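Annex B. Sample input.
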Amino acid sequence: MKILFALFVFLLCPLFPAYAGELDPDPALPIPAITLDSAGNPVIAASPTSSAIDFDFLAGHWKLTNRKLTCRLHGCTAWTPDFVSFVDMQQVLGGKGNLDKYHEDVAGKVFDGLAVRLYDPQTRLWSIYWADGSRGSFDPPVTGSFENGVGHFFGRDHFEGKDIIVVFRWDARNPARPIWSQAFSQDGGKTWEWNSINVSERLP
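Annex B, continued. Sample output.
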């Protein structure tokens, strides 16, 4: 009987993706509290361990499994079906910067994006800039650092006419399967709504 049960489990396991559970925001990882300056911008200080090598784990070619909230800041709780995209990350500026080239093709709809990350040796903070093919400019940057394998990067932006604070989270506690996620806040960082998450696996 034990042999039959073990065989059943072995045959069943491939039906469940290896990333099951990774595409849910981790409740054990709270978003750090932030303060805002008089203009409403997040005041960010680097962690004691922040360094120019913090994104080295991400260099190379990656397959991403993604999930997105079906709508943002309207009380939605439903998420899209999982979908696949791809990223190539190249280090530049002697390792103090890097470029992500993002590509997805879902149901015949192609979407391309570009992330630029820059490390400031004076503040020891990373700034992340994002642009995509829908318009020819970068979004306002998010800025922050890593601590204990997890990076939080904050910025001020607008969404559907609303002032918001954006946070990117990079969970690199397992650098072989890093997890990126994004949340918005309408109340200066008191409450957050997660709206996008993906887990990466390295390609040859």
